């Protein structure tokens, strides 16, 4: 059997729901479908999840949310009771007395919940046996933050024991319940995680992830014009590239797939006949190119510290990490030299007050000669299983950057040997990706198929 997940763009309109329903009906192996909330129909549109976030604070947008589902129900001439149910659920939530964070999580979860409810009604209206199943009924248990939940291992025992209904089971993505029965969502884009958990839990032969592009491209199509699609790649290549910013698949969703050794097939809802990208285990994988993909992420800050004989001082890194722990901060990378150390942090976890307090503490505890806070820091990741086999690769990667006068402030060859990380200024990040891309890949107008 296959677990199939459709992203928000694939469930944004009645026409898209029709495609989804045809894809589900085309292959009897597709027995579990995971839904996202309706996404953008056009560039300036607002995703239903974002409308729900607004609605948690201000009920004025509730009619806009209902209208999104009403348009889909109208397309299929569904019974009005489906929309009445959605309205009643929103009405109930608007009146609940819970903490602010719980109220927000409860609202955010409804986008995928209503999509699943509606898709079940659509499939049934077309004569297909379908059942709407809530994550709590499946035993999907999470812990941690209400907007960044982590799966509890008990989930897999629950899924193994679950008796799936006949026909297609429709499950909302993105949220689950805590042991106490409260709703918590994964981080944004987290419906991919639900799909991967179900694929592992049910021992699926394949996890199909349908989106609005033909597969994973070698670079972000918003940065490089018509980048080359990747036919096959490994889990760890996708994990590194997703972490780096390939928005097409959630980086945490790869972990259940790896644990269950479930191949992931990323496909286009609008062109399901195309093979898409297969993401497979490393064992037996033969790299055909030195580089599989290039990505840049610009949401980083760096703290540069200099003091002579820094490398000789025992416990210095421990003291630094204790400060981070004190402020509940995680760090991304820490390249160091004999007298210097750079600490790279994800900017999204920092506010101005924390930055000031952290700098003051570092000065007090570590007494560096130089402490420099670099705000506009970007990381370029060049990733490929084939990298290790190519000796002069670093030179080939750096040459086009030098030619473009792009300053590289840090080079870090990952311990995994399948990625190279470069630090640059944010303003140069897109140009750096384009320059490296041009060196390793054939431009679209020179490809054989063009
Ligand atoms: N390397 C890449 N390959 C393919 N798509 C990418 C890549 N990097 C970023 N994207 C973007 O990811 C988008 C699909 O992801 P997402 O918006 O989460 O879709 P969905 O709504 O289907 O979940 C694509 O439209 C594309 O713009
Ligand atoms: N709807 C949620 C979860 C999700 O996975 O969405 P999408 O599949 O459209 O990326 C979000 O917008 O974050």
UniProtKB/TrEMBL annotation:
Copy the pathway line from the protein's UniProt record: Amino-acid biosynthesis; L-lysine biosynthesis via DAP pathway; (S)-tetrahydrodipicolinate from L-aspartate: step 1/4; Amino-acid biosynthesis; L-threonine biosynthesis; L-threonine from L-aspartate: step 1/5; Amino-acid biosynthesis; L-methionine biosynthesis via de novo pathway; L-homoserine from L-aspartate: step 1/3
- Gene Ontology CC terms: cytosol
The Gene Ontology biological process terms listed for this entry are:
diaminopimelate biosynthetic process; homoserine biosynthetic process; lysine biosynthetic process via diaminopimelate; threonine biosynthetic process
Mind listing the GO molecular function terms for this protein?
aspartate kinase activity; ATP binding
Does Lipid metabolism count among this protein's keywords?
A: no
As its record notes, the protein acts as a catalyst of: L-aspartate + ATP = 4-phospho-L-aspartate + ADP
- Keywords of this entry: Amino-acid biosynthesis, ATP-binding, Diaminopimelate biosynthesis, Kinase, Nucleotide-binding, Transferase
Q: Which Enzyme Commission numbers does its entry carry? A: 2.7.2.4
Q: Where is the Aspartate/glutamate/uridylate kinase domain?
A: 2-266
Q: Where is the Aspartokinase ACT domain?
A: 380-440
Q: Which Pfam families match?
A: AA_kinase (PF00696), ACT_9 (PF22468)
What InterPro entries is this protein classified in? Answer: AceGlu_kinase-like_sf, ACT-like_dom_sf, ACT_Aspartokinase, Asp/Glu/Uridylate_kinase, Asp_kinase, AsparK_Bifunc_asparK/hSer_DH, Aspartate_kinase_CS
Report the function annotation for this chain.
Catalyzes the phosphorylation of the beta-carboxyl group of aspartic acid with ATP to yield 4-phospho-L-aspartate, which is involved in the branched biosynthetic pathway leading to the biosynthesis of amino acids threonine, isoleucine and methionine.
Tell me the PANTHER family matching this sequence: ASPARTATE KINASE, ASPARTOKINASE 3
Similarity comment text for this entry: Belongs to the aspartokinase family.
Question: What name does UniProt use for this protein?
Answer: Aspartokinase
Name its species.
Lacticaseibacillus saniviri JCM 17471 = DSM 24301
